[in-house]
Amino acid sequence: MVVKSVSSRASIIGRGAKCRGKSAVEQSGYIPRTIMYSEYYGETYFPKPAEDLVSTGVLLPDHAPREYLDHSVLWNSVEKVEKHAKVQLCRLNKYSLPNWMSHELADKFVQDFIKRNFVSKGMCAEYAIHDSVNEKGERNLHVHILLTMRPILENGKWGEKSRKVYKYDKDGNKIKKKNGRYDCTTEKTTDLDDKENARKWRQDLVESINKVAEEIGIEDER
What we know:
- By secondary structure, this protein is an alpha+beta fold.
- The chain has 4 helices and 9 strands; from the N terminus they run βαβββαβαββββα.
- A 5-stranded antiparallel sheet has the order 1-5-7-6-4, sandwiched between helices.
């Protein structure tokens, strides 16, 4: 085994106080180093210039609208469909990649990883691979992956993250509480935000890296 673990970081982008940032569009501009305009906020975001971008792209489920291949259209749509003041918009994952990977191999590897773990589950994904140098002067090949948290339905529309399940009395009528509201619980319609996913994704990344290393004859991590 060449790699036993990978460095990773996950954060949620949304309008709530506990989220890392408020705008999915801003994050989409940051990772590929492009200027982006948020229709929801009416703001233009100018990421700091950097020469570390290796490759970037958007990967979609088959039933997602093809216009979402334009990351500006995709993330503006994500912001527009969400109305709640404390909503979670998207997930941003960052993973280290082995420095023995060429840029071409890293891009092919990342696309395969994203298709298997995210796109196949109904998520839209934007990725950007960076090849930078850290504060110690060491090469730092890594990838940022921005993921939708609302499912895309077969008709290409955004689906619901959750739904209300109402409680009924013996006569089949909705039960009303003292405050006048109907008694109900909230049921998730997707497991895209399941915390257990983060462990599964890291494990798959480690196993995938080691498989590639074996195929090309890498014996020691470097």
